[in-house]
Write a structure and sequence with these properties.
This protein is of the alpha/beta class and 166 residues long. It is 31% helix and 17% strand. The longest helix is centred in the first third of the chain and has 11 residues. The relative contact order is 0.14. It binds thiamine diphosphate and magnesium ion (MG).
Amino acid sequence: MGRTVLPLHTATAIYYVRWSGDHGLRFPGSYRAQLAFPNAVVIDIAGDGSFQMNVQELATVVQYNLPVIVAILNNHSLGMVRQWQQFFYDERYADTSLEVSPDYVKLADAYGAVGLRATRPEEVRPVLEQAMRLRRPVVIDFVVKMMENVFPMIPSGGSIKDMLLA
Ligand SMILES: Cc1ncc(C[n+]2csc(CCOP(=O)(O)OP(=O)(O)O)c2C)c(N)n1
Ligand SMILES: [Mg+2]
């Protein structure tokens, strides 16, 4: 299950974060949080791969008009696994490319949600502000580079002293 970043009792802002559990669970988790705290700003910070696991739940958020914001960090890749292949498997990439992906703005629109996109750093803040003002189900496609890596990481089987920082 996704992990909330802020303690739930604050209930003004709830974020579900990337890599915090099984693929696909954060989106349903985030709209349940929204149901429990209707006035909170709920943001599901999702990988593109993870979001695609339960994308059909867009129908639920639209049906119940839950103003959840899905912020997709779209690297067109199962990035964590790709990063593992890069560092520990001699760049032998297998089954981690999501080069063929849906257009998330059109997909949101097709479900009756709002689709927004940011492709440059200076667009991040305005697009988030726009999403928060709408109080409707929103999907934001934050387009990032496929080969951008996430640190720190600990190689599998390693301990905290083996942590890679860059
Ligand atoms: C149901 C399930 N299957 C497989 C995994 C293993 N797994 C962890 S991260 C990851 C890739 C994540 O891809 P994406 O959601 O696009 O996030 P990114 O790493 O690219 O930011 C996978 C397959 C998982 N966590 N849950
Ligand atoms: Mg990804």
